[in-house]
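The protein record passed on for reference:
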Amino acid sequence: MPFKPADNPKCPKCGKSVYAAEERVAGGLKWHKMCFKCGLCQKLLDSTNCTEHEGELYCKNCHARKFGPKGYGFGGGAGCLSMDTGDHLKGENAGVRTNGACLEPRMIAKAPPGEGCPRCGGYVYAAEQMLARGTAWHKECFKCGDCHKRLDSTNCCEGPDKDIYCKVCYGKKFGPKGYGYGKGAGVLQSDPYANGDQAPKTTVIDTAAIQAPPGKGCPRCGGVVYAAEQVLAKGREWHRKCFKCHDCTKTLDSIIACDGPDNDVYCKTCYGKKWGPHGYGFACGSGFLQTDGLSEEEISANRPYYNPDTTSIKAPKGQGCPRCGGMVFAAEQQLAKGTMWHKKCFNCAECHRPLDSMLACDGPDKEIHCRSCYAKLFGPRGFGYGHAPTLVSTNSDPTVTYTEQLPFTGQKAAKGQGCPRCGFPVYAAEQMHSKNGTWHRRCFSCADCHRSLDSTNLNDGPNGEIYCRGCYGRNYGPKGVGFGLGAGTLTMA
């Protein structure tokens, strides 16, 4: 039996056999490694920049130059007019053997009915498919059915005729037509060249021609109000064209419409002029006297009477303002010591300074004072208690105080209600709080060393007194080795 060599595939460029160790695959054909180059610029290719067209190989630049779109904007630079097809590169390769392989065009390789590209019927491979209407299209066939503009997923519209269109052509062919649906606002676009129909006729109907039963139609014209044109105000239906100001005929909406007492609607300006308040400060400009045609006598007659004297309306004894005895109404009440004061009476009894909840101090004389006057009248006296570190005394007696002296004179508070140390009443401006009760500021000191205390070093003792940390630990803290003044000291004090 004679020897028969293996039938190896032929390289489309040189026509010689291609073996497995040197083959390159593109377009369903096998090429030599050195033949796998661009047909125009002879640049060696690989799988990332190889483009096959009718049995010839090209790099991406040469393929775009030869077969890509041309014209304004498709050149090498933005705004460049380029019609280059690569003809100047052919002269350099005149002596080079070109591809002799003959392949059938892609459009001839038909697919079975219903399986190929809906436009050309050819096979669609994964590298070039575009999806629309659940089917795969060639990238070259994926264009508008009317203007042949190339499409993508953002501007593709699927028509009812199983074709694809750009948004503009889809709107012309299948979109709504008539007044307002043209290319510009307010244009009558019926697209007679798309379907051959005549432009629709628009008939303007007077809304007042169809009269409604009394009390059921538009309050202004009396016509029937249909759903497409109704506007609601005061629980009634108005025509959109009738919903305007009664005086200036300005078109209204829900923001500026005001229902007048005459069952009509007005804009805010006309409503203010007709029904709003009149007088100083109510005009369009600040401080302008706007009476809208009223005389001075009419203004004076309509002006409400106001008596600023709060003591004119006396309240029952014990229920009115503690200072003037007048009735205190909600708009002017101020609270202090559990009673209501007039806002104009809520001032210091000494300096008459206006007070608020931060400055008011309730004195033992059932009056209210500012903090300065309260301190002068009821606060502690002596060295360090004046406005400056000066020794201040209200009488000739020495003001140096000792811990065994009482801070105040007078009647003591009820048992359990005064200061736990001295027993006298504690007022708001000088109170200090602890677990055992409310103390005077000057009494708020350690029971042993008389050191002044605050919330950071306060300790409540089990005997009802307060201590600093050192004295509390000395009296009630643990004792023994390690608990003395020094580490390892035995203290049983």
Notes: The mean pLDDT is 76. Residues 180 and 187 are 6 Å apart (CA to CA). The two ends are 127 Å apart (CA to CA).
